[in-house]
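note to self: the first set is below, dont mix up w the second
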Amino acid sequence: MTDDRLGVPRSIPGAPLNSTAAEQQPGLSGGGRILVFASSRSGGFGGTDIWVSTRTLGGGQPHEELAP
């Protein structure tokens, strides 16, 4: 981020959050460790589900779907 403007979004190679599905409505916790987002990725309960990922000192954790 430069001058309070966001840069071009890009995938992080090998990151467990990357998918080709529609992903939207990200929300980051105040401490920046927990990311909650909606996604139509496979393995969910319905068309679009809510997922969560927690960042650790070693990097991101695999995402988990929140129960319906």
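second set (the one i keep forgetting abt)
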Amino acid sequence: MIKTGKLNKYFNKNRKNEIHVINDIEVSLPDKGLVVLLGPSGSGKTTLLNVLGGLDKVKGEIMFNDIKIDKYKVSKWDEIRNQHIGYIFQNYLLLEQLSVYENIRLTLNMVGITDKDEIDKRITYLLEAVGLKNYKKRKAGMLSGGQQQRVAIARALAKNPQVIIADEPTGNLDSKNTIEVMNIIKKIAETKLVLLVTHERELATAYATRIIELQDGKIVDDSASSGLGNLYRVRQDTDIYLKDLHRHELNDGLLNVDLYSDQEDIQALNLKLVLNNGTLYIDFGNQKFKKIQLFDQNNEVKLIDAHYEDEQEAQEVHSFDYESIIDETKKKKNQPVISLKHSFRLAFSKIINQTKRKRLLFIGFLISGLILSFISASLYAAFDAAEENYMSRPVNMVLVTVKDGYRATYSQIDGATGLTYMVPRPEQHQIQISVPYFDQFNLNYGKDDRIYLYPHFDLENVGTSIIYGRNIENTNEVLLDVSLLKQINHEYSSSIYKMLGINSMKEITGRTMIFYGKEFTIVGFTERQYGTFTMDQLTYYQTKYWTVFEEQPKYDTVEGYINEEFGNSREFFVHSTDVKQTIAYLKLNTSFEGIEDLTTIERDNFMDERQTLFISLSIFSLIILSVTWVSLFFVMRTSVLDRMGELSVFRALGVRKKDLYKTYLIEVLVITGVTSMIGFFLGIYYITNFNPILIEQGIVRVTFLSTIFTILIVLATNILFGLLPIIMILRKTPSQLMSSYDA
């Protein structure tokens, strides 16, 4: 069954207080029998027991059946403990908040037995075998020490293991319960290997079939034992032996009554029995009794029709044949001890039933989520260089600087590849959109009604950027860029356009734009021509320079106006469909000292401005997250420590680490979901629905991807810090966990 090579284990190795607790121990154990590890405190017997049961690490080789284990492999030992080993601990290690039935069912679920009938059959048989048949529903924490130990025995036997490990199973019991427990263990050893630790030589001699004696970590004696222990069963307080009492009979053919009393002389009993509608009523009159108790199938008191001496002999021949009643075909794939449903219920109950201090922490998590929504939206806006955030002019513009003493001319630039137009002195112009009511009564437009736009002249290619309406067909028509709507619909704007509902592409298209006193029909809207109105370039200049004193335009061509403006400007702009080729052409001209892509300039300026903001927001977000992480760590650490006993039981019984991780993962997710995530979504909802000006101004940016990314970051970091306490705890061996719990 179990065979070892030379095993060695040290405590405090290479220190002054080093202890060689297992010293070159080599042992071979049979398939059945009661093998006792005997020795005084500190002899190494419990450590050896833990090592042989996979509860602790050791240097050396262990063979369990055909499984060879030369290093402590957690997953392998978990599987062995789960399937093949049952444990009876000195301190019982029952889950006291659960019933007797639930404690035993837990081990059956672990090995894949979920069929209710099979579970009921096994538990009923085992509880009857240990004398606790009517204790199924009793909470484990409400039982006496002897009763708890018998439940532990039933739990150990439930999965029908090959080996039973018993660590000082009678150490906390009185003499009566000691004999009861040892009687049961002795019966178990008839068909299974029971490995038991004790320091009581008399107990070992009375019951063991083999005694291995240890001293200072070494085996000093290994011998067979007759095990002729006294198997009598001590009388339990809940057992009433009827033949030891005084009996009085009443039999009139219809009513048969037997009265048993522990006193020979008793007062006459005046009782009335009433049977009505299937219900039996008992009237005791004025008689006083210390206690009145009715018997049913769930009663803990047993009525035994025998003398106490007769029962002793009957208990000696009592058989234990558990394997005959179980059905191994009911065993399925291993099941998690704690279901997902139970894990969620447990997590929510913890939040609801938390202390006032922890509830304040949860409120803090919610607030941190709210703050984080603003920070993440701001970070994304600062990090995301979307054109609409920094472009105030059309894309594909080139800025050219002329050297001192030089003057640019139209002809120097006209041959550039990709050139569509040039603007020597780009400037914003104030325009107005005609509002009939205002125009009819000659009312003045207010400050918020002023619209400032740059001119754009690429009529040949503008058609591809039209998103509403049509292209320009006449010189008195214009296109507006959709970015204009941001000015009109500004949250704090009180413009007449917004008030009258003239604030959409549909409402504006077809109206008149007033530019330098002349009217132009708005025929549609473009995109990516940021902050512009598009019109014929010659018409633009003739309108701009037209005065009431001029009957004819100053120039008939664009070139004339541009050359005139070149005389007053050292900088000019060129619009191109091929910026790289245009820049390459312009660099051939020695009179130009600076040629730059305007889109690149504006993006770089934007990123420079946002870099400081990005760093500040990053630091602030790290502070908020760090506070959340630390708080969550301590919340989960408290949760782990509160359930230390439960964790010790689970690990000792062979529950896998990953099953326990899942339980705490769900708790972290629930805490995060009902606190940080709620706060985060409230913040996002506020930004998008009640404060869109922040989005319009590029201060914040909320997208599906940015939201998902932030959620993933929060979940990932919360999971990491939330699971850290359980990960740290479960690094310990089951033996170390039990020691921590006992301490």
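remember for set 2: The chain has three domains: 1-334, 340-387+605-742, 391-598.
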